[in-house]
Predict the 3D structure of the following.
Amino acid sequence: MSGGGVVAGIDVGTTKIELDVYDEAGSLVLRSTRANKTLSDGLRAEQDPKALLSSVKGLLDEARKAGARCVGIAAYRGSLVVWSREGSPVTNIITWMDLRPYKLWGRLPLGLRLASRLPRIGQALSPESMAVRLAVLLAEDPSLARGLAEGSLMAWNIDAYIAYNLTGSYAADSSTAALTGLIHPATLKPINLVFAAARLPRLRIPRLLPHEGLDPLPLKGGGELGSLVGDQQAASVALDCLESGCLKIAMGTGLFLDYPTGDRLLLSPGKGLLPLILLRGRNRVIYGVEAYLPGLGKFVEWFVNSLLNGSYEAIDAGIAESSGRPPLVLPFMWGSRLPRLRGGLAGILGLAPHHGRGDLAAGLAHSIAALTSLLERSLAGILGEPRSIIVTGGLTRLRRLLELVATYLERPIYLARTPGSASALGAAMLAARNCGVQFNPNVEVVRVDPGSYNKAVDPEIIAGSALKLSSALVGCTSSASRQSW
């Protein structure tokens, strides 16, 4: 297909990379996707940086052929990759699904572990942060430290690696950088205490790009990179959920709840919640607070493929058909902030001989809804009740699941139907503004009311069961294994 497109968005997700090309009216001219494979080996969850970059470059060529010369890129967060000045990767991409920080926590520098207990700095030094992932990487391969200190090697999230190879500029998204644990979200300056506590070399910090008011970066091969943004931030832009009182819920590979706080940065929101930058312009910054359960989507994918014959629709069918109280399904809760666990945890509790696949599917659905409610309650308890709740992500195609989520939230929610990926759309919207491209997308919003379902799971029971099960498992392990929790 050639012509018709004016702007494009690329969503670099964990399981796939999606290109969406739009015309001026916001209609989808072209959609193209490529798989993004994860190499899993025990605790490791890595991706091939050369394959990822090749996919992005291929999609850029498709965007140009479709007429789009201005491109925005949204990328998943919590990653780490090391590459050389020539742009060649030195390590694989360590993804946010990698569990080594939890396993090796007890072997990391004492200063880092002590600093992680401090009220504010502890937010930056959670096991999920890039700072801790880098400490783990250097513990495994100390030879990298010299190259990072000298500047012959660079280490950052995949957004900087992609931008470096596409434009030649060492640049990164400011909102993603503020989540690395190395950069202060208020000043966007390096946090010296973190570097010292984690014994990290003073690596080169990329130029941190704003979302609005960015001078587009010329792309090798033609066209301009008009935006570089984190995937959840891009989705908030696409759904116009940037005002205080609007809560965005993304139900995809992870479960993410983002609540804007305007120009107020809450460095220590409490309850394991994460402060973040939702949008940064030259003249304004919009902050927010995030609650999340990273592994939800991957667990659901495993559950569906292993127990439901690959049918996601079985989840909706289970909700409709199950009677009584289904078994309690605990999704794989590593890295979750509510409850905060230093290890992996999953389980099915209350399983009885009369339970069939439909009951298992219903138990999973009720647990997803209950966990969503638990995260929402944690945010509302600090920031007040949201005026509106808008949802997006792959699991939102299940209508009964959405009704069940609304049932647990005890209020209507609103399903956003974007032309393509919400993250790709948000990246394209920001790129169009910076490139001076006329672009008026239309996002359809559909109200979803609570269904006529009984709540089968108490959200607090899920949290309590997880912590009790975690404690029981830890109590049964050796002292060496105990360090992994």
In short: The chain has two domains: 7-231, 240-417+455-485. Confidence is low (pLDDT under 50) at residues 334-343, 469-485.
